From TrEMBL:
The keyword Acyltransferase does not apply. GO terms for biological process: peptidoglycan catabolic process. The lineage of its organism: Bacteria, Bacillati, Actinomycetota, Actinomycetes, Streptosporangiales. Keywords: Membrane, Transmembrane, Transmembrane helix. The keyword Translocase does not apply. The chain crosses the membrane at residues 7-30. InterPro entries: Lysozyme-like_dom_sf (IPR023346), MltB-like (IPR043426), SLT_2 (IPR031304). PANTHER family: LYTIC MUREIN TRANSGLYCOSYLASE, MEMBRANE-BOUND LYTIC MUREIN TRANSGLYCOSYLASE B. It holds the Pfam family SLT_2. One of its GO terms (molecular function) is peptidoglycan lytic transglycosylase activity. It comes from Streptosporangium album. This is Transglycosylase SLT domain-containing protein.
Length: 407
Protein backbone atom coordinates (compact mmCIF):
# COMPACT_ATOMS: atom_id res chain seq x y z
CA UNK A 1 0.00 0.00 0.00
CA UNK A 2 1.34 3.40 -0.90
CA UNK A 3 1.76 6.08 1.73
CA UNK A 4 -1.37 8.20 2.03
CA UNK A 5 -1.54 11.63 3.67
CA UNK A 6 -3.11 11.73 7.10
CA UNK A 7 -5.71 14.26 6.00
CA UNK A 8 -8.05 12.90 3.40
CA UNK A 9 -10.48 15.62 2.40
CA UNK A 10 -11.38 19.25 2.46
CA UNK A 11 -15.11 19.41 3.16
CA UNK A 12 -16.59 22.64 1.89
CA UNK A 13 -19.65 23.70 3.84
CA UNK A 14 -21.25 25.80 1.17
CA UNK A 15 -24.77 24.50 1.13
CA UNK A 16 -25.62 26.34 4.33
CA UNK A 17 -22.63 27.88 6.09
CA UNK A 18 -19.06 28.91 5.47
CA UNK A 19 -17.31 29.75 8.74
CA UNK A 20 -14.07 31.57 9.38
CA UNK A 21 -13.12 31.31 13.05
CA UNK A 22 -10.11 33.34 14.12
CA UNK A 23 -10.95 34.20 17.70
CA UNK A 24 -14.63 33.50 18.15
CA UNK A 25 -17.31 31.77 16.17
CA UNK A 26 -17.71 33.90 13.08
CA UNK A 27 -20.36 32.50 10.78
CA UNK A 28 -21.18 33.53 7.22
CA UNK A 29 -24.31 32.26 5.56
CA UNK A 30 -24.09 31.24 1.91
CA UNK A 31 -27.47 29.95 0.79
CA UNK A 32 -29.22 29.64 -2.54
CA UNK A 33 -32.10 32.08 -3.16
CA UNK A 34 -35.65 30.89 -2.66
CA UNK A 35 -37.95 30.31 -5.59
CA UNK A 36 -37.51 28.39 -8.80
CA UNK A 37 -34.41 28.70 -10.93
CA UNK A 38 -35.87 30.30 -14.04
CA UNK A 39 -34.91 33.17 -16.31
CA UNK A 40 -36.67 35.24 -18.92
CA UNK A 41 -37.59 33.38 -22.09
CA UNK A 42 -35.34 35.68 -24.11
CA UNK A 43 -32.35 34.33 -22.23
CA UNK A 44 -33.19 30.68 -22.80
CA UNK A 45 -33.00 30.57 -26.61
CA UNK A 46 -31.15 27.57 -28.01
CA UNK A 47 -28.76 27.31 -30.95
CA UNK A 48 -28.71 24.85 -33.84
CA UNK A 49 -26.03 22.59 -32.39
CA UNK A 50 -26.11 20.17 -35.31
CA UNK A 51 -24.89 22.97 -37.58
CA UNK A 52 -22.06 24.13 -35.27
CA UNK A 53 -18.69 22.49 -35.90
CA UNK A 54 -16.23 22.35 -32.97
CA UNK A 55 -12.96 24.06 -33.90
CA UNK A 56 -9.94 24.22 -31.56
CA UNK A 57 -8.99 27.86 -31.04
CA UNK A 58 -5.48 28.97 -30.06
CA UNK A 59 -4.96 31.40 -27.19
CA UNK A 60 -5.09 35.08 -28.06
CA UNK A 61 -3.22 36.26 -25.00
CA UNK A 62 -0.58 34.89 -22.68
CA UNK A 63 -1.50 33.98 -19.10
CA UNK A 64 -0.44 36.31 -16.33
CA UNK A 65 3.07 35.37 -15.17
CA UNK A 66 3.84 34.60 -11.56
CA UNK A 67 4.94 37.63 -9.53
CA UNK A 68 8.66 38.26 -9.70
CA UNK A 69 11.00 38.87 -6.79
CA UNK A 70 11.84 42.53 -7.36
CA UNK A 71 12.29 44.91 -4.45
CA UNK A 72 9.27 44.64 -2.21
CA UNK A 73 8.06 47.45 0.05
CA UNK A 74 6.81 45.50 3.07
CA UNK A 75 3.85 46.74 5.10
CA UNK A 76 3.56 44.49 8.17
CA UNK A 77 -0.05 44.08 9.29
CA UNK A 78 -0.86 45.37 12.76
CA UNK A 79 -4.51 44.30 12.78
CA UNK A 80 -6.48 41.51 11.16
CA UNK A 81 -10.19 42.23 10.81
CA UNK A 82 -12.68 39.41 10.24
CA UNK A 83 -16.22 40.42 9.29
CA UNK A 84 -19.39 38.36 9.02
CA UNK A 85 -20.14 39.90 5.63
CA UNK A 86 -18.32 41.73 2.88
CA UNK A 87 -16.88 44.97 4.21
CA UNK A 88 -18.48 47.88 2.38
CA UNK A 89 -16.43 50.34 0.38
CA UNK A 90 -17.50 53.07 2.78
CA UNK A 91 -16.22 51.09 5.76
CA UNK A 92 -12.90 50.52 4.01
CA UNK A 93 -12.59 54.22 3.27
CA UNK A 94 -13.51 55.19 6.83
CA UNK A 95 -10.87 52.84 8.25
CA UNK A 96 -8.23 54.03 5.79
CA UNK A 97 -8.81 57.64 6.89
CA UNK A 98 -8.29 56.95 10.59
CA UNK A 99 -5.32 58.60 12.24
CA UNK A 100 -2.26 56.30 12.23
CA UNK A 101 -3.62 54.06 9.47
CA UNK A 102 -1.06 53.87 6.67
CA UNK A 103 -2.46 51.07 4.49
CA UNK A 104 -5.41 48.68 4.33
CA UNK A 105 -6.27 45.83 1.98
CA UNK A 106 -9.17 43.40 1.94
CA UNK A 107 -9.19 39.73 0.93
CA UNK A 108 -11.65 36.87 0.60
CA UNK A 109 -11.86 34.32 3.38
CA UNK A 110 -13.69 31.34 4.79
CA UNK A 111 -13.25 27.83 6.12
CA UNK A 112 -13.18 24.32 4.80
CA UNK A 113 -13.01 21.17 6.90
CA UNK A 114 -10.18 18.70 6.90
CA UNK A 115 -11.28 15.35 8.30
CA UNK A 116 -13.80 17.24 10.41
CA UNK A 117 -11.27 19.84 11.55
CA UNK A 118 -11.79 23.46 10.50
CA UNK A 119 -9.16 25.01 8.24
CA UNK A 120 -9.31 28.81 7.90
CA UNK A 121 -8.17 30.19 4.56
CA UNK A 122 -7.57 33.55 2.95
CA UNK A 123 -7.91 33.84 -0.82
CA UNK A 124 -5.48 36.41 -2.15
CA UNK A 125 -3.93 38.04 -5.18
CA UNK A 126 -0.27 37.00 -4.71
CA UNK A 127 1.14 40.29 -5.98
CA UNK A 128 -0.98 42.29 -3.52
CA UNK A 129 -0.62 40.02 -0.51
CA UNK A 130 3.13 39.63 -0.86
CA UNK A 131 3.77 43.05 0.68
CA UNK A 132 1.97 41.91 3.85
CA UNK A 133 4.15 38.84 4.33
CA UNK A 134 7.19 38.57 6.64
CA UNK A 135 10.42 39.42 4.83
CA UNK A 136 11.70 35.84 4.64
CA UNK A 137 8.39 34.75 3.10
CA UNK A 138 8.06 37.70 0.72
CA UNK A 139 11.52 36.98 -0.67
CA UNK A 140 10.75 33.33 -1.47
CA UNK A 141 9.46 33.23 -5.08
CA UNK A 142 8.33 29.61 -4.76
CA UNK A 143 5.53 30.64 -2.40
CA UNK A 144 4.08 33.18 -4.80
CA UNK A 145 4.53 31.04 -7.88
CA UNK A 146 2.61 28.27 -6.13
CA UNK A 147 -0.25 30.61 -5.29
CA UNK A 148 -0.32 32.00 -8.82
CA UNK A 149 -0.56 28.41 -10.10
CA UNK A 150 -3.66 27.78 -7.97
CA UNK A 151 -1.95 25.66 -5.31
CA UNK A 152 -2.31 25.76 -1.53
CA UNK A 153 0.34 27.36 0.69
CA UNK A 154 -0.22 26.30 4.29
CA UNK A 155 0.87 28.20 7.36
CA UNK A 156 3.72 26.37 9.06
CA UNK A 157 1.68 25.96 12.24
CA UNK A 158 -1.14 24.26 10.31
CA UNK A 159 1.30 21.81 8.71
CA UNK A 160 2.52 20.77 12.15
CA UNK A 161 -0.91 20.68 13.78
CA UNK A 162 -2.75 18.85 11.01
CA UNK A 163 0.02 16.69 9.61
CA UNK A 164 -0.23 18.10 6.09
CA UNK A 165 2.29 16.51 3.74
CA UNK A 166 4.07 18.91 1.40
CA UNK A 167 3.63 17.92 -2.23
CA UNK A 168 0.52 15.85 -1.50
CA UNK A 169 -2.89 16.51 -3.01
CA UNK A 170 -6.11 16.61 -1.00
CA UNK A 171 -9.56 16.22 -2.46
CA UNK A 172 -12.11 18.87 -1.61
CA UNK A 173 -15.27 16.96 -0.83
CA UNK A 174 -17.54 17.63 -3.79
CA UNK A 175 -15.01 20.05 -5.24
CA UNK A 176 -11.47 20.56 -6.43
CA UNK A 177 -8.20 18.95 -5.42
CA UNK A 178 -5.58 21.12 -3.73
CA UNK A 179 -1.87 20.42 -3.67
CA UNK A 180 0.05 21.60 -0.60
CA UNK A 181 2.89 23.20 -2.54
CA UNK A 182 4.64 25.01 0.31
CA UNK A 183 4.43 26.05 3.94
CA UNK A 184 5.33 29.45 5.33
CA UNK A 185 5.07 31.27 8.68
CA UNK A 186 2.60 34.00 7.75
CA UNK A 187 1.95 34.79 11.41
CA UNK A 188 -1.71 35.77 11.04
CA UNK A 189 -3.65 34.54 14.09
CA UNK A 190 -6.09 31.78 13.19
CA UNK A 191 -5.24 31.73 9.47
CA UNK A 192 -4.16 28.26 8.35
CA UNK A 193 -3.07 29.08 4.83
CA UNK A 194 -3.53 30.89 1.55
CA UNK A 195 -5.04 30.07 -1.82
CA UNK A 196 -5.40 32.23 -4.91
CA UNK A 197 -8.46 34.41 -5.38
CA UNK A 198 -9.76 32.12 -8.12
CA UNK A 199 -9.26 28.98 -6.02
CA UNK A 200 -11.08 30.76 -3.20
CA UNK A 201 -14.04 31.37 -5.48
CA UNK A 202 -14.04 27.70 -6.43
CA UNK A 203 -14.10 26.81 -2.73
CA UNK A 204 -16.92 29.27 -2.04
CA UNK A 205 -14.92 31.56 0.23
CA UNK A 206 -16.64 34.85 0.93
CA UNK A 207 -15.55 38.06 -0.80
CA UNK A 208 -13.92 40.89 1.09
CA UNK A 209 -14.48 39.63 4.65
CA UNK A 210 -10.86 39.89 5.81
CA UNK A 211 -8.97 43.16 6.18
CA UNK A 212 -5.33 43.85 7.00
CA UNK A 213 -4.43 47.19 8.56
CA UNK A 214 -0.95 48.72 8.69
CA UNK A 215 0.24 51.52 10.93
CA UNK A 216 2.84 52.35 13.58
CA UNK A 217 3.45 49.57 16.10
CA UNK A 218 3.18 52.04 18.98
CA UNK A 219 -0.36 53.00 17.92
CA UNK A 220 -1.81 49.49 17.71
CA UNK A 221 -4.00 49.77 20.81
CA UNK A 222 -5.48 53.05 19.60
CA UNK A 223 -5.99 51.67 16.11
CA UNK A 224 -7.69 48.58 17.48
CA UNK A 225 -10.23 50.61 19.43
CA UNK A 226 -10.97 53.02 16.56
CA UNK A 227 -11.34 50.30 13.95
CA UNK A 228 -13.77 48.38 16.17
CA UNK A 229 -16.05 51.41 16.36
CA UNK A 230 -16.45 51.40 12.58
CA UNK A 231 -17.41 47.74 12.27
CA UNK A 232 -20.76 46.04 12.51
CA UNK A 233 -21.70 43.75 15.37
CA UNK A 234 -19.96 40.40 15.28
CA UNK A 235 -16.84 41.58 13.47
CA UNK A 236 -13.53 40.66 15.08
CA UNK A 237 -10.31 42.67 15.32
CA UNK A 238 -7.15 40.71 16.09
CA UNK A 239 -3.77 42.23 16.88
CA UNK A 240 -0.96 40.71 14.83
CA UNK A 241 2.16 39.95 16.89
CA UNK A 242 4.81 42.65 17.09
CA UNK A 243 7.66 40.19 16.51
CA UNK A 244 6.04 38.62 13.45
CA UNK A 245 8.50 39.99 10.88
CA UNK A 246 11.65 39.30 12.87
CA UNK A 247 13.67 36.08 12.84
CA UNK A 248 11.05 33.96 11.10
CA UNK A 249 12.05 30.74 9.41
CA UNK A 250 12.17 30.55 5.65
CA UNK A 251 9.26 28.89 3.84
CA UNK A 252 9.44 25.22 2.91
CA UNK A 253 8.69 24.37 -0.70
CA UNK A 254 7.25 20.94 -1.40
CA UNK A 255 8.75 18.53 -3.89
CA UNK A 256 7.22 18.28 -7.36
CA UNK A 257 4.04 16.24 -7.52
CA UNK A 258 5.82 13.52 -9.48
CA UNK A 259 7.88 12.65 -6.41
CA UNK A 260 4.87 12.24 -4.15
CA UNK A 261 2.20 10.68 -6.32
CA UNK A 262 1.57 7.80 -8.61
CA UNK A 263 2.08 8.39 -12.32
CA UNK A 264 -1.64 8.88 -12.85
CA UNK A 265 -1.99 11.35 -9.98
CA UNK A 266 1.05 13.32 -11.09
CA UNK A 267 -0.05 13.71 -14.69
CA UNK A 268 -3.79 14.20 -14.25
CA UNK A 269 -4.08 15.65 -10.75
CA UNK A 270 -6.70 13.15 -9.66
CA UNK A 271 -6.78 9.75 -8.03
CA UNK A 272 -7.01 6.83 -10.46
CA UNK A 273 -10.64 6.14 -11.32
CA UNK A 274 -11.97 9.22 -9.51
CA UNK A 275 -13.56 10.57 -12.72
CA UNK A 276 -14.35 8.54 -15.81
CA UNK A 277 -12.28 9.54 -18.81
CA UNK A 278 -14.19 9.20 -22.08
CA UNK A 279 -12.67 9.24 -25.55
CA UNK A 280 -15.07 11.47 -27.46
CA UNK A 281 -12.99 11.63 -30.63
CA UNK A 282 -13.64 14.56 -32.95
CA UNK A 283 -17.36 14.59 -33.72
CA UNK A 284 -18.49 16.86 -36.54
CA UNK A 285 -21.01 18.87 -34.52
CA UNK A 286 -21.34 20.37 -31.07
CA UNK A 287 -24.56 18.40 -30.64
CA UNK A 288 -22.71 15.10 -30.92
CA UNK A 289 -19.78 16.42 -28.85
CA UNK A 290 -22.04 17.35 -25.93
CA UNK A 291 -23.84 14.02 -26.13
CA UNK A 292 -20.64 11.96 -26.12
CA UNK A 293 -19.08 14.03 -23.34
CA UNK A 294 -22.05 13.58 -21.01
CA UNK A 295 -21.20 9.86 -20.89
CA UNK A 296 -18.33 10.87 -18.56
CA UNK A 297 -20.92 11.57 -15.87
CA UNK A 298 -23.76 9.04 -15.59
CA UNK A 299 -26.95 10.91 -14.74
CA UNK A 300 -25.82 14.21 -16.29
CA UNK A 301 -27.83 15.36 -19.30
CA UNK A 302 -25.88 16.56 -22.31
CA UNK A 303 -28.21 19.56 -22.38
CA UNK A 304 -26.54 20.96 -19.25
CA UNK A 305 -23.17 20.87 -21.00
CA UNK A 306 -24.72 22.54 -24.03
CA UNK A 307 -26.24 25.26 -21.87
CA UNK A 308 -22.93 25.96 -20.13
CA UNK A 309 -21.15 25.99 -23.48
CA UNK A 310 -23.64 28.55 -24.77
CA UNK A 311 -23.39 30.81 -21.73
CA UNK A 312 -19.61 30.59 -21.40
CA UNK A 313 -18.45 31.02 -25.00
CA UNK A 314 -21.43 30.76 -27.35
CA UNK A 315 -20.15 27.30 -28.28
CA UNK A 316 -16.56 28.29 -28.91
CA UNK A 317 -17.15 31.65 -30.55
CA UNK A 318 -15.82 33.69 -27.62
CA UNK A 319 -13.00 31.64 -26.13
CA UNK A 320 -11.28 34.40 -24.15
CA UNK A 321 -9.16 34.70 -22.13
CA UNK A 322 -11.76 36.52 -20.04
CA UNK A 323 -10.87 39.44 -17.78
CA UNK A 324 -10.56 36.90 -14.93
CA UNK A 325 -8.22 34.67 -16.95
CA UNK A 326 -10.71 31.94 -17.92
CA UNK A 327 -9.84 30.24 -21.21
CA UNK A 328 -11.31 28.10 -23.94
CA UNK A 329 -14.82 27.11 -25.04
CA UNK A 330 -15.83 26.04 -21.53
CA UNK A 331 -13.95 28.92 -19.83
CA UNK A 332 -11.74 26.98 -17.44
CA UNK A 333 -9.29 28.76 -15.18
CA UNK A 334 -5.78 27.36 -15.85
CA UNK A 335 -5.40 26.21 -12.22
CA UNK A 336 -8.66 24.25 -12.42
CA UNK A 337 -7.66 22.83 -15.79
CA UNK A 338 -4.50 21.39 -14.24
CA UNK A 339 -6.73 19.17 -12.12
CA UNK A 340 -9.69 18.43 -14.38
CA UNK A 341 -8.40 18.80 -17.94
CA UNK A 342 -8.61 15.57 -19.98
CA UNK A 343 -7.50 14.47 -23.42
CA UNK A 344 -10.84 13.85 -25.07
CA UNK A 345 -9.75 13.34 -28.67
CA UNK A 346 -6.78 11.08 -27.98
CA UNK A 347 -4.10 13.32 -29.48
CA UNK A 348 -1.96 13.04 -26.34
CA UNK A 349 -2.58 16.60 -25.13
CA UNK A 350 -5.22 18.03 -22.78
CA UNK A 351 -5.76 21.34 -24.58
CA UNK A 352 -7.84 23.96 -22.76
CA UNK A 353 -8.61 25.63 -26.11
CA UNK A 354 -9.91 22.47 -27.78
CA UNK A 355 -13.65 21.76 -27.47
CA UNK A 356 -12.86 18.04 -27.83
CA UNK A 357 -10.95 18.25 -24.54
CA UNK A 358 -12.78 21.10 -22.80
CA UNK A 359 -16.33 19.72 -23.02
CA UNK A 360 -15.57 16.28 -21.52
CA UNK A 361 -13.42 18.05 -18.91
CA UNK A 362 -16.42 20.18 -17.96
CA UNK A 363 -18.47 17.01 -17.63
CA UNK A 364 -15.85 15.57 -15.28
CA UNK A 365 -15.74 18.75 -13.21
CA UNK A 366 -19.52 18.85 -12.87
CA UNK A 367 -19.57 15.16 -11.98
CA UNK A 368 -16.98 15.68 -9.24
CA UNK A 369 -19.37 18.20 -7.72
CA UNK A 370 -22.37 15.84 -7.78
CA UNK A 371 -24.10 16.81 -11.03
CA UNK A 372 -24.96 13.21 -11.87
CA UNK A 373 -27.26 13.04 -8.84
CA UNK A 374 -29.66 15.58 -10.34
CA UNK A 375 -31.99 17.94 -8.50
CA UNK A 376 -30.41 20.26 -5.96
CA UNK A 377 -27.08 18.45 -6.36
CA UNK A 378 -27.08 19.37 -10.04
CA UNK A 379 -27.89 22.99 -9.26
CA UNK A 380 -25.08 23.14 -6.72
CA UNK A 381 -22.64 21.57 -9.18
CA UNK A 382 -23.49 24.29 -11.71
CA UNK A 383 -23.05 26.85 -8.92
CA UNK A 384 -19.53 25.50 -8.39
CA UNK A 385 -18.86 26.18 -12.07
CA UNK A 386 -19.77 29.85 -11.61
CA UNK A 387 -20.68 31.07 -8.14
CA UNK A 388 -23.90 32.84 -9.05
CA UNK A 389 -27.44 31.58 -8.59
CA UNK A 390 -28.58 33.72 -11.53
CA UNK A 391 -26.01 31.83 -13.61
CA UNK A 392 -27.48 28.54 -12.36
CA UNK A 393 -30.97 29.72 -13.30
CA UNK A 394 -29.84 30.72 -16.77
CA UNK A 395 -28.06 27.42 -17.41
CA UNK A 396 -31.04 25.39 -16.19
CA UNK A 397 -33.43 27.35 -18.40
CA UNK A 398 -31.27 26.99 -21.51
CA UNK A 399 -30.81 23.30 -20.72
CA UNK A 400 -34.57 22.84 -20.67
CA UNK A 401 -34.74 24.63 -24.01
CA UNK A 402 -32.27 22.19 -25.54
CA UNK A 403 -34.21 19.26 -24.11
CA UNK A 404 -37.33 20.53 -25.91
CA UNK A 405 -35.46 21.26 -29.14
CA UNK A 406 -33.72 17.87 -29.25
CA UNK A 407 -36.13 15.35 -27.66
Amino acid sequence: MSHLPRLWAFVTILAVVVALAVVGGVVFVVTRPTGSLTVAAAESGVRDLAALTPVPSPPVASPTPAPQSAEIALTPPRLLVISQATLSQQTLEDISQLKYVEKVDSFDGGAVKVSGVGLNLLAVDPSRFRTWAPKAVAEQPGVWSALAAGEFVADSSAVRRLGLALGSQYQVDGGIRLRVAASAPFGLPGVDGLVSAETGRRLGLLPGVALLVNGPQKAVATLNARVRRLLSSGAQVVTVGAGRTAAVKKPTIGRPATENATTDEATTGRQPGAVRQVAVGRPGSYLELYRRSAVACPGLSWTVLAAIGQVESSHGRNNGPSSAGAQGPMQFMPATWKTYGVDGDGDGVANIWSPYDAVPSAAGYLCANGAGQGGKKLEKAIWFYNHSWSYVAKVMSISQGYARAYP
